[in-house]
Amino acid sequence: MARNITSFVCQSCGASYGRWQGKCESCGAWNTIAEENVGTGVGGTPAKGSAKKGRTFALAGLDGVGDQAPRTETQVGELDRVFGGGLVKGSVILIGGDPGIGKSTLLIQASARLARMGHRVVYISGEEAVDQVRLRAERLGLTASPVELAAETNVEDIVATLSEGPTPRLVVIDSIQTMWTDKVESAPGTVSQVRSAAQVLIRYAKKSGAAVILVGHVTKDGQIAGPRVVEHMVDAVMSFEGEGGHHFRILRAVKNRFGPTDEIGVFEMTGKGLREVPNPSELFLAGRDLGAPGTAVFAGMEGTRPVLVEIQALVAPSTLGTPRRAVVGWDPARLSMVLAVLDAHCGVRLGSHDVYLNVAGGLRIAEPAADLAVAAALVSSLTGAVMPADAVYFGEVSLSGAVRPVAQAAARLKEAKKLGFTRAVVPEVARGEAGEPGLGTQSVNNLSTLVADIAASGVGARKPKAVANE
Question: Is 440 known to sit in a ligand binding site?
Fold first, then answer.
């Protein structure tokens, strides 16, 4: 006999419990566990009295010819770069970001460009009325684009409407947390509703071949709200990032079954919407203070694109028993390692100093190739030496103090040469493998060599009391 099962589900992480409790043991959140009624059958429907016999299906071999359709470019170059070249037929993409970061603006711009190319595009808003979406389109100058709009939250009604007429090339659901299905007896936004609604839309995308983009809310720590199983169900997960004090936004791929996960798309927020930034290095280096110590330019890589950013460091005597270590845009554990190497192998004593590190422009760096630039900025701030304005730095620092080579050195040097830099401080191996005409390279095989050069140039500026054996 069919029956409903009552379970208590954490609305933050999706963990299930047999009874209510104040704290979720899985994620540690308080007062996030709510009661939900879940059917005994698959998809939340009540189970039948008798088991249904399964049907047979055809099996294919590895040597078959697939009918994969070519990607559809949205004509937004930075968006297509992160997608891997464009939208894939039948793919489902989840895009998350902070409120007001520009998710809806980016998607309405991409929808308008696709619609102007003759494709059918449907924009379903569960948070705003149709008139509100039209006001945004009017502000962006997109009212002439034939995008089909609707304000609906029931996924069964949405799928039934989309099934009429030609198959849409793109369907935007804004947002998945507002969708609900009749198969689940719980409020919209709960774990069961988000999971079930996403499953219905994914099934429609795979069956019809339409590309579906789901907009997702994020929690306080930047994670996409709702059950983590939704991220496993979709084909790609994108994160739309940006700092409130900066006017640019970064679209980063967290998961992508049809493309790379290390590419980024850079946009600039303007009065007319989001503008693509084809050369983000010029944006990140704009307004650089060339005469201040504690700064060094790092030649990094984001996917296949070289990006030059400024590393800023401030080292000041501390009045606290435990000096502060503040990091913005880099890994704090990596900074602790660089400080330990400077202390143990280079004689740079920073145990009584506060250390502040910032990646200018709000970009977040994850690769260890920034070790050399960070070390140069720290020593420059400590000694008062002004780093050369025409030099870039990259290299990984090992625990022994050796500077290890990094990948794609040629692309880094080529980008530095294009932006007018004439010097590059690189690892020993990178100097021999990547020569760029007009760009001089200084090889460094040990961090102590770089520290000695910077300290020597800063003796006249400020006495380096924290550098031993000077």
Answer: no
